[in-house]
Amino acid sequence: MDTRKVSIITTLTALCIATNYALLGIHQVKLMDFIVFVGGFYLGPLAGASIGILSWLVYGTINPYGFIPQVWLATMFSEAIYGLIGGLLGKKIAPTNFNGVRLRLSIFFGTIGFISTLFYDLATNVVWASAFSVPIIVAILCGTPFTIVHQVSNATIFGVSAVPVITVLEKLFGDEKVGVSKK
User: Fold this and answer.
1) What is the CATH topology of the domain spanning 3-173?
2) pLDDT in tens, 145-176
3) Which pTM was predicted?
4) How far apart (Å, rounded) are the C-alpha atoms in residues 17 and 147?
């Protein structure tokens, strides 16, 4: 891994942590998932997963809501899914000229945000239930309002922001992608 890639991973990890603290008062509305996804899209699945794991490694350890090892591990590895998905999509559709297909891609990215958040919330709710000896169905039912807010906010953030942010990254870094194969 080259120095440039490591510095981008470090910067995106710091951005994830900073935005989580900045949005602390707004439950379930976070930019971390999107930043990890875009990092994966641009840098590849392994780097994207690394951003997710590193972000929760730090944020989860000094989490203002408390530290529960099982939940911390679940969130850390569940967050990596956003980076993996972003990286796999980046390899498929990365240098895409988004002109003319922006609306379809925005809907597609919004759907990806919605579905991946469903899996993230399901996994973390199951682990939370196990950690506190709560029946899984009770944890899922009680967590449903939070899950809905998280899914809708991520669908909106991914749908509205993915195409413009990826376009800006392409313009900033030109044709030289960092870890994403050229077509």
Assistant:
1) Arp2/3 complex 21 kDa subunit ARPC3 (1.10.1760)
2) 999 999 999 999 999 999 899 888 878 876 55
3) 0.89
4) 21
